[in-house]
Amino acid sequence: MKVLSVNAGSIGDLFVPQSDRMHRVATGIHKHPLEGPVKVGKLGIEGDEQADLTVHGGLNKAVYAYPSEHYAFWIAQRLAVHKREEPLPPGSLGENLTLQGVLESDLWMGDRLHIGSVVLAVTEPRQPCYKFNAKMGFSHAAKMMVQAGNSGFYLRVIESGTLQAGDAVSIVPGKRETSLAQINERRLKGRQRDLF
User: Fold this and answer.
1) Strand 97-100 relative to strand 63-67: parallel, antiparallel, unpaired?
2) Cα-only R_g, the chain
3) Any idea what the CATH number is for the domain that residue 18 is in?
4) What's the pLDDT tens digit per position in 169-180?
5) I need a surface site. Which of 112, 129, 136, 141 has the fewest CB within 10 A?
């Protein structure tokens, strides 16, 4: 288990179709890999920004992590929709940490991830919105994320410090009362009417 990439981004524009027109919305979903050691404070990765603080950022969503194992799924979906292969570099799903070997099915609320000198606690899986659809380039991307359960997960910073690409990830179990997979399953069942 390790960090493949540490990613951050500034608030930028995203063009979203609405009522047969493209509308510009502010977003922090555009992330790019950072080199070397990166500082992580209580509100997340140094230099990272979120546009809508009502649903992103804050203490309980300070860092967003995504398993690299899901990237093949998204590349295949985009190929099916766009009929051409498009690269998805690390950070493309809006994540701060692109992780290898750490899946939603492995994690429970309150589990702690030790990375570099940083300690992070799992707080919840991601709930994708319309901006994710625009970022992926097709209108049903958020629904597909919910259906597949490959949501990634938010983290609270317990101990600030530094981390970098290549760092090992170790998991220290929490109380193990509610798993991310259980939450994702409940969300899927709760949204069946919306998904089909």
Assistant:
1) parallel
2) 16
3) 2.40.33.20
4) 999 999 999 999
5) 129
